[in-house]
Amino acid sequence: MPAAHLAAFHAEIAQNDSRLWAAAVAAWRGRSQPYELAQALFGMAESALSAGDRAAAQDPLREAASLADDLGAGHLRREIDLLAARGRVDLASPEPPPTPPPADPFGLTARELDVLRLLADGLTNSQIAASLFISASTAGVHVSRILAKLGAGRRTEAAAIAHRAGLLRRLDD
User: Which of 6, 43, 77, 102 has the fewest Cβ atoms within 10 angstroms?
Assistant: First the structure.
């Protein structure tokens, strides 16, 4: 008898021994038999619910439900749904964590961020150009684009917006 069958057999006999169900799940995970894995996960969840541990039942039930859906195993899925309802376990996947805001919500390029740092220090276009080894007209174009992207009317306003948005702090880190 293969180890996975033996582990499942022992878990069935012991019924509510979560360690044996965990061993059966581990044994079936190493094989390409998703139906049997789903059954072992179901047993593991049932054992956890019998012990009053709803939290420990949630992940195995969700995985078993997903496997049953993938296999088109309607009978198994109905059993999973009934167990989830009896145990008041939510089978819905948890909400994904919120997407962090982009590092630069204004869409500034790396070069524009360089220019912004110098602009915030009060440098003129000529001084920015000399510092970055670009022409004064190129510095002016960068400044114009920065003002537009930040929605600022003046250089000081752009510096204030960048400071409030944390753009200058990120550059200094």
Answer: 102
